[in-house]
Amino acid sequence: MSGDSRFSEALLARGRTIKVLLLDVDGVLTDGGLIYSAQGETLKRFNTLDGHGLKMLHSAGITTAVITGRDSEPLRARLAALGISHARYGIDDKLPAAQAILAELQLDWSQAAAMGDDWPDWPMMQKAALRCAPSNAHHELRVRADFVSRSQGGQGAVREVCDLLLSATGHYPSIAAKYAL
Q: Which of 36, 39, 142, 166 shows the greatest Cβ crowding within 10 Å of its Cβ?
């Protein structure tokens, strides 16, 4: 099983050089909805397909970084559980934060993929070698993305990008084989 049949050769070629995946949270790792408890705590729902995909990326040597406009303890706990150590919280201007992460990792934009769902994500996405958006992203991002997932944000969209990157870098077959697929 190659996993490649879902992706064009041109898309796979764009993904071959990727060493880091930059992600937004609300609308990408979550469905974008915010639930407020009576105590004012913000709750978010994350998808386990996305989480497992990110863990597989990590095992393949591809770093995940998160840049988000919000901050909360549940979010920090989820990212820690996924082993994501490169995260910036409460960021309005995501491009400088993304650039700083790339510098820390000693990478450049030609080695970065980015996934976002709304206008604040575009400056970061525009610089990336591979621009990705969930199917329910704002129209302006969907038409400019190299890859638009079939799934919506928070419902497996990130997993599709993970599968794309694993396929592009040749790791998909060996990881699938671990599960007897």
A: 166
Cβ-contact 135, 149 below 8 angstroms: yes
pLDDT exceeds cutoff 60 at 4: no
At what angle are helices 48-59 and 157-168 packed, to 10 degrees?
20
Pick among 1.10.10.10, 3.40.50.300, 3.30.300.20, 3.40.50.1000: CATH of 7-178? 3.40.50.1000
Q: Residue 6: which of 153, 178, 151 has the closest Cα? A: 151
The pTM for the full model equals 0.94
Show the beta-strand stretches assigned E in the chain. Answer: 20-23, 35-36, 42-43, 63-67, 86-88, 112-115, 130-133, 147-148
Domain boundaries, the chain: 7-178
Neighbouring residues of 31: CB distance < 8 A, sequence distance ≥ 6: 45, 152, 153, 154, 155
Residue 2 has pLDDT above 70, yes or no: no
47-99: pLDDT as tens digits: 999 999 999 999 999 999 999 999 988 899 999 999 999 999 999 999 999 99
Better-predicted residue by pLDDT, 42 or 25: 25
